[in-house]
């Protein structure tokens, strides 16, 4: 199969962003700096996201390295902000640019009660003028792209026109791209987890948004289980134009080795991706440095549990790391022992007698 090249017709300084590229979704408690380093080992081109960081944590906290720190190698990397006060968002966007982020993204998609109470996330879809004001305020103070991640609607919103009106406000405010999770969010009655699965998918609306705003990069998110599923949306869908980019979340976290195919399949790279063993070995210096800085092994390895997904020994790899990496003094020997279990299981499978058919 020939590689599909991401739509780069918007590749000028202002429009090269995660909305017209392949990106890994922001995931709270998951996409921290250690996770992003591991993902960058597997793909040189995928756009990576921080966890959502609230403006309050940045402005009123006393630990900017904790909230804004990242490794230079994870570029291109997006800082996702949660907030609704334009002045605070502008201040935090500027700080994100100063700390080396490639893009600022506003969260208008998280449905949890905690963020709703602070006017953060999906509840902002009820306040389109405010979101547009937020975008304009951030655009006014940074030179990097400003994007928005939203849903197709919330609660009882049943009409496409409401979504189109919302996006029109963003476009008029100068947004550089919009990533749309193709499900509604129910602000009451469903948990955040249920909001990722229960509301039905409506990919057609996202493609209609692209038709309505052909000059604005639009990416699709939600329910994509494979790279092939994603590639489907980079072509016409239900007689609507292709979207510009795709965002995958949980499937990448649970099966991170999928990223080893991204550079070839989405960016036309002529370099073969790393093998699982090469990716593991590439993590060793990072792990050693983290341990020497006083970190714990499981802070890194918890993001690597899916490296051998669907391979012989995958369960033993996960189990050995889960049971040992958190222990005081755990080091690379724990990782090496877990990998040896994978190798032993692969060898056992290869040596097993073959049943004649």
CATH architecture of the largest domain: Alpha-Beta Barrel
Anisotropy-based shape: globular
What about the largest sheet? 9 strands, parallel
Specify the CATH homologous superfamily of the largest domain. Answer: Aldolase class I
Please report the number of helical segments.
16
Report the strand count: 9
Task: Tell me the CATH topology of the largest domain.
Answer: TIM Barrel
Structural class: alpha/beta
Share of β-strand residues: 5-15%
Radius of gyration: 21 Å
Query: Which sequence of SSEs, written as H and E, runs from N to C?
Result: EHEEHHEHEHHEHEHHEHEHHHHHH
Provide the domain count.
2
What percentage of residues falls in helices of 4 or more residues?
40-55%
Mean pLDDT: 92
Assembly state of the chains shown: single chain
* CATH class (first level) name of the largest domain: Alpha Beta
Q: What is the first-to-last residue Cα distance?
A: 31 Å
The parts where pLDDT drops under 50 for at least 5 residues are 1-5, 7-14
Give the SSE layout:
Layout: E1 22-24, H1 33-42, E2 48-49, E3 53-54, H2 55-60, H3 64-68, E4 77-82, H4 86-98, E5 103-108, H5 113-116, H6 128-139, E6 146-154, H7 160-172, E7 177-185, H8 192-195, H9 203-212, E8 218-221, H10 227-232, E9 245-248, H11 250-254, H12 262-267, H13 276-292, H14 298-301, H15 314-324, H16 332-351
Parallel strand pairs: 1-9, 2-4, 3-4, 4-5, 5-6, 6-7, 7-8, 8-9
